[in-house]
Amino acid sequence: MMKWKRQFALEWNHIFRNPWLMGLPALYGVLYAWFLSAVSPLNNFFNEAYSFHALVQTLTLGIVMLLGILAIRRDIRRPAYEWSTGLPLAYGMRITAKFAAAMAYLTLFSLLAAGLFVAFSYGRGIESAVNISHGVYFFVSYEISYVVTLALAMLLAVCLQNRVVYLIGFCAWMFGTFFMQLFIVERYNLYILRTFHLSELFVEGTRGYELWGYGTDIDEMIRSGLFVLAFAALLLTAAVTILNLLRPTKHGARLWFTAGLSVLLACAACAPYGLLWSDRYSSYNAKINDETILDIVSFWDEPTEMFEVANYDLVLEKAENGVLFGTARLEIPASALISQGKEEITLTLNRLFSVSEVKANGDPVSFTRQGDLLSLPRSDAPEQRESVSLEIRYSGKVAEDNGKGLYHALVQRDNVLLPRDFVWYPFPGMRHVYMKEDWSNTLQLGSMYKEMPFPAAEYRLTVKGFDSKLYTSLPELEMQGNNGKLLGADFKMQVFQGFGKDGISLFGGPFVEVSVPSLPSRIITTPSSRALAEHVLQEWSGYYRYFASWVADFEPKIQQVGYFVTKQMMNDRSENGMYLIFASHSGDNGYAGLLMTEMLLGTRKGSFQIENMRKDIRLPLRSLMWYVYYREAEGLSHKDIENGMADFRMLGALFHTDSNEDPDNLGGRMAEEAGKAIDAGKISQVKEILNYFYTQGMEIPLEEPDGPAQASPIPYEAWEREWERVMGHENGA
């Protein structure tokens, strides 16, 4: 042991007494601190820090590669030092001492990466527990990357005595990072190979996000990390074995036994990682090869069958092993089944769940499953009852990989992502959950391309056994927790109840709740996005005060907002009074105006169905509400607004409209009339007209071709009549 310590001290001095090498961590720390200090308060701090590490840590691997090669070429593979082979010092001792000294130096980068992040995060008011968790993740990722890269560099230097090893080392660095990322992993969706990526941070996927990020890959990271460490040990053992073969040794048997043992250890460490991906690929390929899952062309032409449900009573419990056990009780009006005229009841439930029992009116019934469809016979004539009660018990473990390193749905530790379109509870009727993208040979949730309807029903949802507080679009009974505080493992049972017409999604993670007294809504987001949420709420509350001061019968259409910065592929939408924003990049994108529009005017997702503006002017009317705001509250003139001094996303139906959608420029004509009236001091009359149409409804929901109308169009003639009634013959002059 004394020999190893002296060798380690020698290697330590070679590194830590080199001013050039010691200047590199200092330079790294200065650059990192400057970058963190320049991050906007409105950006997600973790995402910004990760983007820095993804590039800079990959660049530091070049230092690791050079350091490993120099450590070997300095004496072991240098002809002038051949005499050192006669020293009574085993190659294993020399290699491990060099490796340990180099890792001690490289750990300076890891400590700076973690320490500076924690310090700057704390300065921004982010919770210490969150900071430390992220800091540990950065530290461990740096260390694992450095371990395998250093071992690879030392093996290359042992194998190649010529100076060409520097070129080969550079190629290995480039291939193991940028080339592998861009041309192998991403191009061919071979995310199983990311364990061979030299950088743990320069990997495409969800890990660079605070929400549903690296926390969802803990199992994979542990298995991958163990394999990488075992593989690094194999590389070092190979280097020692090659060197020992260059000189006579009496420990040949021990040498080959150690080499064989390292190979077996690496293979054993690879097995759990391979099994994890084997399960993912088998589940994914089963869906790709399933002919009942349609391609995009057939998917668009396939209708969604749905019947009425009066009440849902859902119970979802998470066991300690992560398996979900669900019980769904549906109260179905008999008239809904009679109108279908079918001999069986068809439900849709994601194929990931296995159904254990189905009861109809309290009696067990037989059932069949094909893919996502669940079919059961009607036990008796529905005419004899007012309603039919169904009870379905099902279970399954949710971690649905989409083949691109992302998830369709997941329940892992405190991370919960159960979107409504995943159909995690029984849907009444037949719908296609998945869709194939032919051009990329990948699988997507059908809702990414086609809006799906959901039944309007009374819901009661009980969740048990989850590790974090869950959020959904239904009101929670007996709300718990303090505003703005992290909500953790104290919430073992929650009950949500209310009316829903947009389906039910369920979310869990490291969330905080942010609200202000002047606004009847809150934003649910992650700790690093708290500052943005506070900024949006302040701006939003200003809009709210203005519109609430004159809009008659103003009933807010959203009561809470989910702002989720995540890589998971989902569309922004409104769901039962909750507006969901899924952003892949942080920062303010005019969210306050968007949310005020949703709160005041409701959805406009059916706007593309308006083909004739003369028959339906709801879009210009919605824009006129904002036109009045900019004229009165912001003090802008009509010319200022035309010149782009207002947010054109709110005014798109009035200015520079598409001639195909509004050939008569009715939107521009309405804006001009309102502008002249405001200039003449008749803003109260303009508000009266807008209030008249507001009470009729300016929401533009998506209308189903065969379904009942959800909202009535407002023709241009109605505008002319109301304008004539209020303004008389002055026409705004």
Describe what you observe in this structure.
With 733 residues, this protein is an alpha+beta fold. It folds into 4 domains: 2-286, no CATH class; 290-501, Sandwich (Immunoglobulin-like); 511-594, Zincin-like; 607-727, no CATH class. 44% of the residues lie in helices and 17% in strands. It has 18 helices and 24 strands. The protein has a 7-stranded mixed sheet with strand order 6-5-9-3-2-16-18. A 5-stranded antiparallel sheet has the order 1-13-4-8-7, with no helix packed on it. β23 (573-575) and β24 form a beta hairpin. It is globular, with a radius of gyration of 32 Å. It starts with a helix and ends in a 6-residue tail after the last helix. Mean pLDDT is 89; it is low at 484-490. Keywords: Membrane, Transmembrane, Transmembrane helix. The chain crosses the membrane at residues 20-40, 52-72, 99-123, 135-157, 164-184, 221-243, 255-277.
